[in-house]
Design a protein that fits this description.
This protein is an alpha/beta fold. It has 2 domains: about 240 residues, Type I PLP-dependent aspartate aminotransferase-like (Major domain) (Aspartate Aminotransferase, domain 2), CATH 3.40.640.10; about 90 residues, Aspartate Aminotransferase, domain 1 (Alpha-Beta Complex), CATH 3.90.1150.10. Helix content is about 35%, strand content about 20%. It has 11 helices and 15 strands. It has a 7-stranded mixed sheet with strand order 4-10-9-8-7-5-6, with helices on both faces. The termini are far apart. Its cofactor is pyridoxal 5'-phosphate.
Length: about 375
C-alpha cells in the first residue's frame, strides 16, 4: 500500500531529538526553529516528559470516559492555575481542529444561531466546521461549503461592528496571532471592541490559541496581551509536546449537558500524563518568561537585517516577510545551514521553536541566517 501523497516532503529523515536540536538518520544535527508547527513546547525528549509518560503507559495507557480519570482533573487544576482561567471548564479532545469543532458546536447550542464571523487569512483546521471558518477555498470541499461563514478584514472595527449589529451571528472565531496567515497580530483596540460587541449582541467569542497559546507569545495566551477574556479558548499543539491532544476552555456561562459533547480518545490517561509533564516543565523552567525574553531578542535582532521587509510576532512566534519568495532562502537554511524553519504563503518565513530556546541558540540561528542572506 502506498501513502496518500498530499505532503511535499524534504528529503530528510529525522530520527532523534533533544531540546532544540534534531538529528537525521545519517547523524546530521539540525537546529530546530520550527518545533513541528509549534507542537514541541518544552523541547524534544525532555527527561521529565519521557519519564512521566513511560511510567504512565507502563501502568495504564487508556480507558474510556465512562469511568473516573483523576488525571483529567489534575490537568484542569494545573492548567487553570497557570493560565489564569481557573473558573473555566475544560473539555479534552485530540487535536486543534476537533477543539474548534466543539467550540463552534457549543456556541450554536448556546444561542441557537448558525452564522459565524471569521477573518481574512484565518486558519482553524481541516475538518467540517473548522475548515469552513478557514479562509482558504483550496481546502474547503463542496460538502464543507455550507454558507455559515462571513470573512472580515482583520482589525477592521467598523466592519466587525456592522456585521454583529445584524443580531444573527452565532460566534466570532479569531486566532490570538494568525499563524498560517503570516504572523498577523490583532490589535488590542480591535480585540477590546470585539469583546464589547459580542457582549452587546449575545455572540460567543472564541479565541483559537492552538498555535499562539501555551506560552508561545510570552504570555500563556496571546490574547492576554490585549486585556480581554473570551467565552471559549481552544488549545492543542504545545499542550502535549508531540502527544496528540487538544482542549476547550469554556466559560461559566455555558452549562454542560450529558451527551452534548463526546470523544473516544480525548483526555486518555497517557495524554493527560503528557500534558501534566508539559505544565511541570513550563513552570519549573520558566518557559513562558523565556519565550518573552528570547523572543524579544530575536525580533530586535531580525529587524536589523536590511534584507527582511518586515518582522512580526510576539515571543517565540515570529514571521519574517521578504519582498521576494523565500523558497530558496528556506532551502539554504535547511540544507546548507542545517536549520529547520516554517513558511506562511510565498514570502514569509515562520519561526516556532521550542520554548526552551536559549539566547545562545537564538544567536546561532541569527549567525546562520546572516550566512544565507549576505
Amino acid at each position: 500500500m502506498k501513502l496518500f501523497d498530499v505532503y511535499p516532503l524534504f528529503d530528510v529523515n529525522i530520527v532523534q531529538g533533544k531540546g532544540c536540536h534534531v538529528w537525521d538518520d545519517k547523524g546530521q544535527e539540525y537546529l530546530d526553529l520550527y518545533g513541528g508547527h509549534a507542537v514541541i513546547s518544552i523541547g524534544h525528549a525532555h527527561p521529565h516528559y519521557v519519564e512521566t509518560i513511560s511510567k504512565q503507559v507502563a501502568k495504564l495507557g487508556f480507558y474510556s470516559n465512562s469511568v473516573i480519570n483523576k488525571l483529567q482533573q489534575e490537568v484542569a487544576d494545573r492548567l487553570g492555575a497557570m493560565c489564569g482561567y481557573d473558573d473555566y471548564q475544560l473539555f479534552l479532545i485530540n487535536s486543534g481542529a476537533e477543539a474548534n469543532e466543539n467550540a463552534l458546536k457549543l456556541a450554536s447550542f448556546y444561542n441557537g444561531r448558525t452564522r459565524v464571523i471569521s477573518f481574512a487569512k484565518a486558519f482553524h483546521g481541516r475538518t467540517s466546521l473548522a475548515v469552513e471558518v478557514t479562509n482558504n477555498p483550496k481546502i474547503i470541499a463542496p460538502i464543507n461549503d455550507n454558507g455559515h461563514v462571513t470573512y472580515l478584514p482583520l482589525n477592521d472595527t467598523e466592519a466587525m461592528k456592522a456585521e454583529l449589529a445584524k443580531g444573527d451571528v452565532c460566534a466570532v472565531i479569531i486566532e490570538g496571532i494568525q499563524g498560517v496567515g503570516g504572523i498577523q497580530l490583532p490589535t488590542s483596540e480591535f480585540m477590546q471592541a470585539l469583546r464589547q460587541a459580542c457582549d452587546e449582541h449575545n455572540t460567543v467569542l472564541i479565541l483559537d490559541e492552538i498555535q499562539s497559546g501555551y506560552g508561545r507569545s510570552g504570555k500563556f495566551f496571546a490574547h492576554q496581551h490585549t486585556g480581554i477574556r473570551p467565552d471559549i479558548i481552544t488549545v492543542a499543539k504545545g499542550i502535549g509536546n508531540g502527544f496528540p491532544m487538544g482542549g476547550v476552555l469554556i466559560s461559566p456561562k455555558f452549562t454542560p449537558v450529558y451527551g452534548q459533547l463526546g470523544t473516544t480518545f480525548g483526555g486518555n490517561h497517557l495524554a493527560c500524563a503528557a500534558a501534566i509533564a508539559v505544565l511541570d516543565v513550563m513552570k519549573e523552567e520558566n518557559l513562558v518568561e523565556n519565550a518573552a525574553l528570547v523572543g524579544t531578542h530575536l525580533i530586535e535582532e531580525l529587524k536589523k537585517f536590511p534584507q527582511i521587509k518586515e518582522v512580526r510576532g510576539r515571543g517565540l512566534m515570529i514571521g519574517m516577510e521578504f519582498s521576494e519568495p523565500i523558497k530558496e532562502i528556506r532551502q539554504q537554511l535547511l540544507f546548507e545551514q542545517k536549520v529547520f524553519t516554517g513558511v506562511s504563503g510565498t514570502n514569509v518565513i515562520r519561526l516556532l521553536p521550542p520554548l526552551c530556546l536559549s539566547m545562545a541558540e537564538a544567536d546561532e540561528f541569527l549567525s546562520r541566517l546572516h550566512a544565507v542572506l549576505k
